Amino acid sequence: MKASSKEEEEKVEFEEGEIEYVSYGGEHHLPLIMNLVDQELSEPYSIFTYRYFVYLWPQLSFLAFHKGKCVGTVVCKMGEHRNTYRGYIAMLVVIKPYRGRGIATELVTRSIKMMMESGCEEVTLEAEVTNKGALALYGRLGFIRAKRLFHYYLNGVDAFRLKLLFPRQEVHIEASHGNNDLDST
Amino acid sequence: MADKAVSEEASMEGHAPKLASIPASDNTVWADATPLLEAACQGLTDGELIHGDNFNLFAAMSALEIMDPKMDSGIVCRYYSIDEAIENGVAPIPISLDSTVDVQCTIDIMDHLLACEAAWHTGHSLAQTVFSCIYLLRLDRTASHALLHSYCRVTRATCKAVVSVVSDARTHEEEDLFTMTYGLPLNGDGDEKCLSMLNTVEETISRQLRVCKAASSKRSSVDLEPLQSNPNLEEGFCKALLCRLRFRKRPQGRGLELARKHIASCISELESILNSAEFLRSCSAESCEDDIEDKTTASGREPIGFDATLNSRLSAPTPPRAIKILSWKKAIQYFLKLLRHLDVICSYSLDPNLESLLHFVVQFQKSQPDLVSRAHLQLLLVQDGKLYGRDPIFTVITKASALPEAAKNHDIQKNEYIVQLGQLVMNLLKILCTNAAWQRRKLGKILQDWRVIYVQLELAFRNEFGEASSSSNDENIRMKIFQHILVWVEEQTYWIAFRFLMLGFELELYSASEYCMVYWYLYAVLIKLAEKTHLKIAVSHDTAKRKGKKRKDSPKELARESRIPPVVLFLQCYICLAEGLTMMLAALRNEIMVLQSPSPFNTEQEKFIQHFELLQRACIPDHVSYPSFKESTTHARFSTLAMYNYFKDAQRIAKEVKSSFSNDPDRLAELRRLEQVAEHNSVALNLICRLGALDPSLKVSFEFSHHPFFATAVVRRS
Description:
Low-confidence stretches of chain B: 1-19
Number of strands of chain B: 4
GO molecular function (chain A): protein-N-terminal amino-acid acetyltransferase activity
Shape of chain B: globular
Oligomer: heterodimer
Family (chain A): Belongs to the acetyltransferase family. MAK3 subfamily.
Pfam families (chain A): Acetyltransf_1
Distance between the termini of chain B: 70 Å
Helix content of chain B: 55-70%
Number of strands of chain A: 8
Strand order of the largest sheet of chain B: 1-2
Number of domains of chain A: 1
Helix content of chain A: 25-40%
Distance between the termini of chain A: 37 Å
Largest interface: A-B, 47 and 58 residues
Domain N-acetyltransferase (chain A): 19-167
Low-confidence stretches of chain A: 171-185
Number of domains of chain B: 3
CATH superfamily of chain A: Gcn5-related N-acetyltransferase (GNAT)
Strand content of chain A: 25-35%
Order of helices and strands of chain A: EEHHEEEHEHEEHH
CATH topology of chain A: Aminopeptidase
Keywords (chain A): Acyltransferase, Transferase
Number of helices of chain A: 6
Mean pLDDT of chain A: 87
């Protein structure tokens, strides 16, 4: 889905310690999330979409508050996808005056940790090819650009499918033997 | 669950409302569901939803909020219907009672339609572009206005023809939006007559033009009404209309030669259309020079008779898309580009040699053609299961495998794996005509198929010839065909892998910290590709030699054979660059600790697995893995690179091999690019070797300034 871009804007003065991170806590959080996403992202989502995520995976959604004001949020899901258990980052938003201070990284890191602990093998998301801020952020977290999706968004822009693969213990043994899929078929 | 509750309640109540359309049957009755819904509403709290098991993300995303303008494509913006819009005078006929204004407005409509058509070609729906034209939606209304009527009709017929080309070439979802035409009056009666209508109108206007020119030399004609009432503007309007009409004309006949002539005349009409802008702007009352670039008409005025919101509900179930019609100038540029691409396609020689064809398609794709021209290319290449609708696919395979001409009729083509191989070749050609993003994904997937067909062919070959060495002549031929095809299949597989890796650069899928592994993998694939290409050439020489056994081998002939063929040297040049870049990047990581990207959740190994998963799964190449990558790069040091400079090799080879491609401008240009990359990197490498470890202020970055996928190192002092 989407992550909002990081443009330079007028900044708010604050200490990193003043930001409070909260896991999704119920209906009262929903309007906060919807407001942020509606403001910042181009893609329109229905209330069904929001509820789909936060009701099924409340533990994967987080909000960031500064002095009681919601300034950022992340919404995710996880589930079986073609024989892998996969996490998916659906929306990530930090409002402009608060960008560039690691809030998005902290939000998304919390979600990814939960996914890893829940047994996900990988995490994916889509980001606009023009969204340099989001691409750099996910790059630092270990995501690769796995595919380019032609005219993916409603506004006609291409997207990258980003993927983060978690390490597996067996990988070392498999890799050193080469892949012998063909021989066994 | 809900269904069951309804039917139970219904049977209890026992009185169904009478509905004539869907009668109750043995197992069903009609029931009033209001009490059930009320009960359900009371039982639900805020945020709860009754849904089936299949309510997934897609269902949630497809749900629309009524009256939200971001989502509700059925929302009424201005008019409830086309008829209502017409009643309100949105698309009058005639457009104006003043004949001069009427002509002006007609030209605006033509221009805006062209802009709409270009917007459609470049990714928007037909419903919200060309069919935002109310005249086009109710074409019969325009019958009394010959000029507008013929232009609208020919535009509609063109759209239909283009939809049919793109649907015939259909390979993937890119076309879904393009070919979506439901609810649109695309199939009109009598559109086959549109060209003769157009000709009639064109003839009239050219006569009007002649009359007005004659009138200016004081010879008046009585039998013909002028186009409009202002004699000073008559010539300009006639000319502006004529190029617009002629752009839409199509000659009688078939064939690529005629097509090229037609393309050339369309290009010249487009130029005339562009030139008409000055006159049209001067006639327009509104003169706003600044934003003329954004306007959708030559005159700069808003066209009459368009409303994109009228059928936006036809775009359901997707939310209404943001539509930006191209400007008139951009639209003309789009059509010029389209025509030039079509001309490239039509000028292709239909070479039966697959290798040249692949080269042609790859070159063509470099010019980033849009969907419509790519669809035309694909239809030209693959028709009725034959290449160009002419060469049977087995003939193409035997030629590509460097087999003698006679092999093409051999019975072996009925072998099921050979048949499958033919399908793979066709499929490959279609994939190479798609957009780069989709192309790469499909190429990655078909690698496995090419690998499997190789294994199956090899097995079939071993089963047939494994035990006894045969004696019969036919068996010898069968064996030879198998041998040749096997070598070629491997070569082709590595070619696909090479293209797959290269497209990653074009699509910007690799980040700088991943370049090292990508060049290393590219190197591994290129080595195999060069090896198989060389083998194929050697095998074909062998076959040719045995055929002409009696002829004595001249020393000249022998010398030619022992020499490395130019195509292999060409690949060798790539190999040196890939290896040089791998080692330079590795040394930078090992010694200056740059281009590393430690991440909190995984390691470089996971990135390797992800990037090359499809190649690894197909064993391309064999015995290549993350540990072997590590092994060959962990010891890279500048001290060793200084002694053995791969870039110098690349430069030398590029220089040497140029003379062999003097007739091939594409390859010559490529060699020049390779030479530049090699030269720059060689200098950069020397610099880093001398200063690198000592000078912490040295910054090395990589750019694609000389070649699209071989990076050039740039050394700066910070």
